[in-house]
Amino acid sequence: MRRYWHHRAPKKFTLPQLFACLVLKEFLRLDYRKLSAVLEESPSWTAAIGLASVPHFTTFQKAATRLLESRRVQRMLDHSVRMGQ
Length: 85
What we know:
This protein is mainly alpha-helical. Helix content is 66%, strand content 0%.
């Protein structure tokens, strides 16, 4: 997985960090707003993912749309969620 969408993209969150957040969202069966709220309230999870700040919920929505267009990423997400159950 690439580190960022584009070489000129803002370097605020990496694709692997956003992917980890989306795995957490699916595992906990949250929507994007609740995912942001849970991460705000869980500094240990935020630190484990390597986030300096919690992304806005729209960042998760946009990342999901772009990441899930890839069959490879969809398979990785499905596998990650199954491993956590």
